[in-house]
Design goal:
68 residues; alpha+beta; 5-stranded antiparallel β-sheet; 2 helices
Length: 68
């Protein structure tokens, strides 16, 4: 996991072999998002606004997720 500076996200990680994106929220737990393509992880990593990118490209995209 890599620390990020946003209002809502604290860290992100990615398991390329399984397509699992890991998101640690500042005031919550760690969540796994399944079936996420590497390009989505890369987009999040380099986004100017990671919170907006997460909301649009991950949260609203309907990925299956689970709290760790």
């Amino acid at each position: 996991m890599i620390h990020v500076e946003t209002n809502n996200l604290q860290a992100i990680g990615y398991d390329e072999s399984q397509g699992i994106l890991y998101i640690e929220f500042k005031h919550s737990d760690i969540y796994q998002y399944y079936g996420v393509d590497k390009s989505i992880h890369d987009g999040l990593s380099y986004a100017d606004s990671k919170d907006k990118y997460f909301d649009k490209m991950i949260k609203k995209a309907g990925y299956t997720y689970a709290r760790v």
